[in-house]
Design goal:
- By secondary structure, the chain is of the alpha/beta class.
- The chain has helices at 72-87, 163-173, 192-214, 231-245, 269-272, 280-291, 325-337, 362-379, and strands at residues 7-17, 28-35, 49-53, 62-67, 103-108, 113-118, 144-149, 177-180, 223-229, 253-257, 314-319, 342-347.
- Strand 11 (314-319), helix 7 and strand 12 (342-347) form a beta-alpha-beta unit.
- The longest helix is centred in the middle third of the chain and has 23 residues, at 192-214.
- The chain is globular.
Length: 381
């Protein structure tokens, strides 16, 4: 195992399978091993004819239960990934989804990340030149943008591993996406990651102001939506609170997939779902590595204890079978109590971050399409 770079250990108890967010060889050791280099993640299936139901007792928010005509092969894709992760087997996270068509990828150094710019400004239309390149070389020129924050338990993931999923969101919405990079545990712990995404948000605002100045145009306010999956959602909530507290222009809305909001793993869904990987021990260990001694109820770090008043609209998507289902339910309840416009869609039979299979499964494509439509509405595009 020593030849596998970029791993570190966290004790989970008597034994556990290797926790593998991509690229770790199989093992059962006393400590869980997490990849800290470019790694990979998973996703699942089932699609959706949606029916709106009464909210569960955990939340007063609108809840949509999504059941789907099942493609059994697709249904297994995300689950098979997490079962392999639980066994400590190698997986290829970024290859769960298909490459989106019509999206230009541009690597940026500062802030570090990827611009994913759709070649068409709207789905079904084309702004391409004869060479196929986008009429706008970079999403940095757009008035409406999406800041995307990847998940990976703070120990893995990157803009690259999530490029396909975020690229599908860019293509479906016609809105440029900036997928920000941030440092991973153990080299980077709280508050490094929140600081990084905050600086990326400020730069998106500042670059629009500079463009207006350079073009001798009145400064228009850039419209930004924030997207985050898993712990990317953790960072998205903290970012919105910090932007509000600092008096900066607020994001237009937050789209959160399989949000990780409860560092103490208190939700009952750990006991009721069929999640093969995310146990309370795994989630608490990941949280301990990130918090590095910070109180798991610190409002600056923990979404369930953040002051949510004054937040923009929030749309949560979550798998109905994942252990973190109650993380989304509890957050939706708190958002509703704070007067925030909130939507929660629970997708039947799905596990954590099933949207990663975009382009390969109908359920992921449906979720991406729903998210894209919502983003267009809140960004007024």
């Amino acid at each position: 195992m020593d030849q596998w770079p970029g791993t570190f250990s966290i004790r989970l108890g008597q034994w556990t399978s290797a926790a593998n967010f991509g690229g770790v060889r199989p093992s059962r050791f006393l400590a869980a091993r997490f990849v800290v280099c470019p790694c990979v993640k998973t996703t699942a299936t089932t699609s959706a004819a949606s029916t709106t139901t009464a909210a569960p007792s955990a939340t007063s928010a609108d809840v949509t239960a999504r059941s789907a005509a099942r493609d059994l092969g697709a249904e297994r894709l995300n689950r098979a990934h997490w079962e392999a992760v639980a066994r400590g087997e190698p997986t290829t996270w970024e290859e769960l989804g298909a490459q989106p068509e019509g999206v230009t990828v541009e690597r940026m150094a500062h802030p570090s990340g990827l611009w994913l710019t759709p070649n068409a400004s709207r789905p079904g239309t084309s702004d391409q030149s004869s060479s196929g390149a986008s009429a706008s070389a970079s999403g940095s020129d757009s008035d409406a943008v999406i800041l995307a924050i990847h998940g990976g338990g703070f120990v893995g993931g990157s803009a690259t591993t999530h490029q396909r999923m975020f690229g599908h969101l860019a293509a479906a919405s016609g809105i440029p996406v900036f997928a920000v990079e941030y440092g991973l545990v153990p080299d980077h712990t709280f508050p490094s990651q929140p600081d990084t995404v905050f600086e990326a948000y400020r730069e998106l605002l500042a670059s629009a102001a500079r463009r207006s100045r350079d073009q001798a145009q009145p400064a228009g306010e850039r419209r930004i939506a924030i997207v985050g999956d898993s712990v990317g959602a953790t960072l998205a909530i903290g970012l919105a609170a910090r932007v509000r507290d600092d008096g900066l222009p607020m994001p237009a809305g937050l789209l959160l997939a399989s949000a990780s909001t409860d560092f103490e793993a208190m939700g009952g869904s750990y006991d009721t779902g069929s999640d093969p990987f995310f146990t309370r021990e795994v989630v608490r260990a990941l949280a301990d590595g990130y918090l590095a001694g910070t109180d798991p109820r610190d409002p600056a770090a923990a979404p369930l204890f953040t002051d949510l008043r004054g937040f923009p609209p929030v749309y949560l998507q979550v798998g109905a079978e994942e252990s973190l289902l109650d993380d989304s339910r509890m957050l939706a309840e708190r958002l509703h109590s704070a007067g925030v416009q909130t939507r929660l869609d629970a997708y039947e039979d799905q596990l954590h971050t099933f949207q990663m299979t975009a382009g390969r499964t109908r359920v992921a494509d449906d979720a991406i399409a729903e998210g894209a439509t919502w983003l267009r509405s809140i960004l007024n595009v």
